[in-house]
Amino acid sequence: MAEQRTARVELSSGPGRVLVFVYGVFAVAATGRSLVQLGTDADRAPFAYSLSLVAAVIYLVATTCLLLGGRVAWRVAVAACSIEVLGVVGIGILSYVDTELFPDKTVWSHFGQGYGFLPLVLPFLGLAWLRATAPDS
Amino acid sequence: MNDWLAGAVLALTLASAAVAGYLMLRDRLAQDRTFALFAAAEVVLVVQLVVGCVALGTADRDVDGVLFVSYLVGNCLALPIGVFWSLAERSRSGTGVLVVAALTVAALQVRLDTIWSGVGG
To answer: What is the tally of structural domains in chain B?
Structure first.
């Protein structure tokens, strides 16, 4: 129990505290966005809206892992942030190349332009923080 | 929607962000006066929630209601969550959370006004 507590302090304290808050905001924003999109007008852009949902899940996983802390959560968080990098870069490029796939925007289209490009910066901040808090192997 | 309320929200949240940002740079902890500023912003946000819902009910043009109300509610939640999350760790980073929370509300407010004008989704 005591060990778990130390781990928890590590991931969500210091700069991690700010990171958790930002990830939390994005988790809520992306979840809200995808639910509204899929709930009200799913047929308009099924591909883009599904991607919104994927982004939402990734942010939720990352937020939860940062909050939980510990070795396993750390690994999962690294995976989530890595997928985020691939997602935001991949979708970013795709949204410029194949505009027909994206009749409506997702969190990640145009490299997160609608969110002040924060989605592009966030995973790198996340990975940097995870690197700094890497558990000894 | 009420422009005065929107202006007050922007002014108060940007002022809160500036004060918290200054404290963070000087590595000082936020005290009651700073939290009073956040509380003032929150009061305006709650008023805006009520006024916004009434305005939506009486609006004679197309506004995406679900989206609009979700932004109104989200706007009310961000500051309290940020403040309590910050109070749980009284440190420089804790003050940083205050900055981010205030800026988040300012950004949401800009989006809220866009949604109200019916431009983009």
So the answer is: 1
**Domain enclosing residue B61, as ranges:** 3-117
pLDDT given at position A37: 85
In a domain, residue A137? The reply is no
ipTM for the assembly:
0.91
Which pTM was predicted?
0.90
For residue B9, which of B117, B114, B113 has the smallest C-alpha distance? B113
Mutate one of A11, A17, A20, A23 to test the B interface: name it (highest B CB count within 10 A): A17
Distance in angstroms (rounded) separating the CA atoms of residues B88 and B82: 10
C-alpha dist (Å) from residue B8 to B17, B28, B40, B45: 14, 26, 10, 9
Indicate the DSSP class of residue A135: P
- B45-84 pLDDT, tens digit per residue, is 999 999 999 999 888 777 888 889 999 999 999 999 999 9
Chain B partners within 8 Å of A14 (Cβ): 91, 93
- The residue range of the domain holding A53 is 2-131
Structure tokens at B46: 């709650």
Q: How far apart are CA B116 and CA A97, in angstroms?
A: 31
Chain A CB contacts of B107 under 8 Å are 116
Could you report the per-residue pLDDT of A61-77, keeping only the tens digit for each? 999 999 999 899 999 99
Q: Answer yes or no: are the C-beta atoms of B79 and B49 closer than 8 Å.
A: no
